């Protein structure tokens, strides 16, 4: 059969159109499968925190979204002492094991949170059977045994541990926690030594909030110097990053990134979220024992964030990511404290029962304008 020139041209046009459609579909598909982790792959890890509600009962598409957007994961609550080790002889591994399995399935950078913290730690930890405070030596032994068991269980699998959390009390120096009161300031040295023994390959971090605060910055810099002088190895500092539209001053935050990096440690942004609600009194930070009474004035957007506020959120997130990109040589990871707005602790802190919008995905797990602003910096 001979094909005339006209038929040939028609067939070629059809073929070209089909190829173009296939190409467009392939591009659309690739975009669907591309997330922040891909856009930022040459800069730093992009992480999220997972709570046990999402772990055990993920909304449709949640796990796929996490795998698409993130390449690092932190367990929000279930490696904390009160959850994982609620009684002297009782360990609860279900959630932590499940978290590890989910992350490993997607080849994530796994973050353990947290080994030594004053908060969410049961009272029995600090007392003997008669309810009296343990001696320094006995409390150190208890700390070591906890770290051995928890960090030891995930040895070689947790890539970074928050070893000590929130040991500094703003401008006032050491937080007067039972760890500090019963052991002394070298509780930090011991925690890092025990963690290094239990998890030799892990990246070990000191983690805190309000790290833009000059007093805290200097204190943490001194802490790193002292640890190093004492032969204790510390790999990084976690700057939590619970920020707002008006606070903190980005220039102060930047000074802290530079100051920590100058000590030879990596900077991790460990718990990023951006509060969109009115500041309750002059409250900033993440001191979990703070709380304020609910009022409608403090909860102005119960039914959705107005467009102008979405824009402000997007612009502020872009500012933060410009800063992180500027210091990409110092920053190892940027982790959001949750994925979608409904999950965020910021709905209940420091005032319970509010509707907040601190993350990049909305309550239906759709990308918000803030997401696109962060993505656009890399396009
Ligand atoms: O799961 C229980 C639920 O069964 C119960 O009905 C409900 C009633 O109170 O409580 C639920 O547990 C709460 C849990 O969050 C899960 O929502 C706890 O009370 C509450 O204390 C816990 O708050 C967590 C907080 O740390 C204290 O551990 C937040 O989710 C978590 O985001 C927050 O994370 C901390 C970091 O670990 C350290 N840096 C600051 C950051 C924010 O505070």
From TrEMBL:
Annotated catalytic residues: 271 (nucleophile)
Gene Ontology MF terms in the entry: endo-1,4-beta-xylanase activity
GO biological process: polysaccharide catabolic process
Residues making up the signal peptide according to the UniProt record: 1-28
Catalytic activity: Endohydrolysis of (1->4)-beta-D-xylosidic linkages in xylans
Top-level enzyme category: hydrolase
Domain GH10: 30-377
Source domain of life: Bacteria
Keyword Magnesium on entry: no
Family according to the record: Belongs to the glycosyl hydrolase 10 (cellulase F) family.
The name this protein goes by in its record: Beta-xylanase
